[in-house]
């Protein structure tokens, strides 16, 4: 009977786990689409912001779907979601990802809201809840929060497999967002 209860609990967790994976994949794809929408097409002239958007795209691609944060709904307003922080993420990485989110275009060519579900209103709080998900392996060292990383044991650092740091491009363009 005890085994059945444990089995039942595992079966209940599967759909919510799949839903979370779908959400992370959607967040990832949305951020990739945002970056690509600001890059010039083939044969179009390069703009001053091109290097910045190429940097944002490289960051989001390197971060991957597993590096996207989760969120929870506001009890009073179901249209607002509070971002759960990933304690392993560096402040520089969070800044770049949030800039990409702020630049997302939510209107169509006519200036009307895009069809489909409205984008989530995601709010970041200083005292936000931490996500319980583990840090993804094999990301550049500067993607990980240094305080968090320094608390890891040598074995945990080896298992994490951090790659050499890839500096973020510092541009005045980022100040726009």
What structural keywords apply?
single chain; 177 residues; mainly alpha; 3 strands; 7% strand; globular; disordered N terminus
Describe this structure in words.
With 177 residues, the chain is mainly α. It has one domain. It has 5 helices and 3 strands; from the N terminus they run H-H-E-E-H-E-H-H. It has a 3-stranded mixed sheet, with helices on one face. Helix 1 (2-38) runs antiparallel to helix 2 (50-63). The longest helix is centred in the first third of the chain and has 37 residues, at 2-38. The chain is globular. The protein starts with a helix and ends in a 17-residue tail after the last helix.
Q: What is the count of β-strands?
A: 3
Shape, please?
globular
Give the ordered list of helices and strands. HHEEHEHH
What strand line-up does the widest sheet have?
1-2-3
Helix content percent band: 40-55%
Q: Uncertain segments of ≥5 residues (pLDDT<50)?
A: 1-16
N-end to C-end Cα span: 56 Å
- Sheet bearing the most strands, described? 3 strands, mixed
Mean pLDDT: 76
Beta-strand fraction estimate? 5-15%
Rg result: 19 Å
Please report the number of helical segments. 5
Number of domain units: 1
Short description:
The protein is built from five helices and three strands, in the order H-H-E-E-H-E-H-H.
Write the layout of secondary structure elements.
Layout: H1 2-38, H2 50-63, E1 70-73, E2 80-84, H3 91-102, E3 121-123, H4 146-150, H5 154-160
Parallel strand pairs: 2-3
Antiparallel strand pairs: 1-2
Helix pairs in contact: 1-2
């Amino acid at each position: 009977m005890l085994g059945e209860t444990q089995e039942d609990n595992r079966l209940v967790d599967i759909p919510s786990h799949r839903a979370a994976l779908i959400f992370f994949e959607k967040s990832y794809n949305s951020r990739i689409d945002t970056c690509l929408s600001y890059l010039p097409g083939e044969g179009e002239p390069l703009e001053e912001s091109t290097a910045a958007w190429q940097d944002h795209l490289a960051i989001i691609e390197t971060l991957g779907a597993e590096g996207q944060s989760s969120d929870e709904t506001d009890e009073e307003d179901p249209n607002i979601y509070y971002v759960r922080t990933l304690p392993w993420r560096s402040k520089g990485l969070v800044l770049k990802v949030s800039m990409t989110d702020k630049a997302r275009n939510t209107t169509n060519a006519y200036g009307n809201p895009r069809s489909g579900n409205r984008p989530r209103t995601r709010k970041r709080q200083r005292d936000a809840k931490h996500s319980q998900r583990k840090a993804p392996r094999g990301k550049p060292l500067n993607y990980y929060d240094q305080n968090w990383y320094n608390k890891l044991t040598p074995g945990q650092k080896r298992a994490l497999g951090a790659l050499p740091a890839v500096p973020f491009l510092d541009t005045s363009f980022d100040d726009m967002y």
